[in-house]
């Protein structure tokens, strides 16, 4: 049996094809039309890609402007917050100083009350002794009355001072809370700016 390669070599098919069969007059316009169509499609694709890139670029520029405005606002907020914090801290220091002074005043009033109480007890003891001897201790009674008035004034001063301390504590509580909130916000803004 003859091989396939032998059959091909002995066949009547010409080994070379005629060039005119590839470039016939009807194929050239078709090839040109396909080439132009490919160029047109490629051009349209390029135009669409460029248009999309420009649109994305414009969107990104708007986003950049928006972020810059937000950053500027955050910086302004940070500056305002810093001023607010310094003002509130100064008020807090003043209130704490007032509280300290009032506490010292209260301690002094307590000491004075104790001295007055001891003096009053001493005078009452002397009055009791003189009454037992049927002596009229008018001077001691006046001294007792003065000591009782002084005790009453000291009690009033103590109550007033304690009320003032309580009011200062009431003022300090929300200030402490606000300072904590401001510090947290300041930290958040600092993180955002970085």
From TrEMBL:
Superkingdom in the source lineage? Eukaryota
This one is known as Myosin-2 heavy chain, non muscle-like protein
The record's keywords, sorted A to Z, are: Coiled coil, Membrane, Transmembrane, Transmembrane helix
Instruction: Look up keyword Transmembrane helix and say if it applies.
Output: yes
TM regions (residue ranges):
30-53
Coiled-coil ranges (or none)? 57-126
Look up and give the organism this protein is from.
Answer: Lates japonicus (Japanese lates)
């Amino acid at each position: 049996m003859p091989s396939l390669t032998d059959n091909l070599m002995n066949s009547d098919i010409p080994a070379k094809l005629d060039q005119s069969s590839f470039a016939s007059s009807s194929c050239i316009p078709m090839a040109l039309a396909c080439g132009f169509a490919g160029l047109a499609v490629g051009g349209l694709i390029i135009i669409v890609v460029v248009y999309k890139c420009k649109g994305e670029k414009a969107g990104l520029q708007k986003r950049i402007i928006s972020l810059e405005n937000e950053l500027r606002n955050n910086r302004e907020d940070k500056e305002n917050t810093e001023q607010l914090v310094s003002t509130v801290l100064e008020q807090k220091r003043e209130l704490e100083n007032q509280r300290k002074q009032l506490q010292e005043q209260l301690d002094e009033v307590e000491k004075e009350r104790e001295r007055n109480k001891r003096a009053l007890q001493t005078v009452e003891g002397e009055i009791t002794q003189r009454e037992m001897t049927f002596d009229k201790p008018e001077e001691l009674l006046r001294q007792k009355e003065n000591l009782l008035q002084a005790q009453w004034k000291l009690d009033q001063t103590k109550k007033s001072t304690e009320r003032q301390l309580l009011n200062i504590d009431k003022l300090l509580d929300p200030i402490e809370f606000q300072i904590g909130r401001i510090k947290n916000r300041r930290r958040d803004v600092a993180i955002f700016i970085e």
